Amino acid sequence: MKYTRFEELPVWQSAIKLSVKTYALTATPCFKGHGSLRDQIERAAVSVSNNVAEGYERGTTQELLTFLYIARGSAGEVRSMLCLIEQLPFSIDLKSEISNLKLLAENISRQLRAWADSLQNTDIKGQRYLNEKSRRVAQAETERIKFREELRQMQEGNIARLQREREQSRSQEAVHELESN
C-alpha cells in the first residue's frame, strides 16, 4: 500500500495514540509537583509522531531514515521515562497505564525499525529525486518483477500438470499390463 500523507501511516497513528495516552497519564493528580518530569515525557511522546511526519515530508529517503531513527530514539526515551516513573512512589496506582504505554512505545519502536530496515535496502532516493524518467524506470522494473512471478507460477502449474498426466499414464499402463496378463 502506498501512503500519500503521513496521517495515513499506521506508525504515525500509533505515535499519536502514544501522545494522547501519555497526556492522559500526566493529567492525573499524581503528577502534581512533578512538572519537569511531566513536561519531559510529554515532549518525548509528541516527538515520535512529529519526527515521523517531518521525515516523511522531507522528500528524500536518507532524511526520512534520519527522522525515523530520531523518532525511534524518542520512543525509547518515553519507555525509559516510564520505567523511571514506575519506580517512583507516586505512581503506584498507575501500574496498568504505565505498562500499556510501555508496550505501545515498544511496538512503535519495532514498526520504525522495520520501516527503516526496508528503506535501507532500496535504491529509491525519495520523492524529491523522482522525475518522469525515474518513474518510468521504476514502473518498468515493477512490471518485470510481476511478469517473472507470473511466469514462475505458470511454470509451476505446468510442472504439476505434467506430473499428474505422467502419473495417470503410468496408472493406465499398469491397468493395461494387468488386463493383458
Structure characterization notes:
Helix 1 runs antiparallel to helix 2 and helix 3 packs antiparallel against helix 4 (95-120). The mean pLDDT is 89. This protein is 79% helix and 0% strand. It starts with 9 loop residues before the first helix and ends with a helix. The chain folds into two domains: 6-128, 23S rRNA-intervening sequence (de novo design (two linked rop proteins), Up-down Bundle); 131-181. It has 181 residues and is an all-alpha fold. The protein has helices spanning 10-26, 35-58, 61-87, 95-120, 132-180.
Set out the fold topology.
Elements (H helix, E strand, L loop, with lengths): L9 H17 L8 H24 L2 H27 L7 H26 L11 H49 L1
Helix pairs in contact: 1-2, 1-4, 2-3, 3-4
Along the chain, the helix and strand elements come as: HHHHH
Tell me the overall shape: elongated
Poorly predicted ranges (pLDDT <50, ≥5 residues)? none
Individual helix count = 5
Helical percentage: over 70%
The CATH C-level class name of the largest domain: Mainly Alpha
Instruction: Estimate the strand proportion.
Output: under 5%
The rounded distance between the terminal residues' Cα atoms is: 64 Å
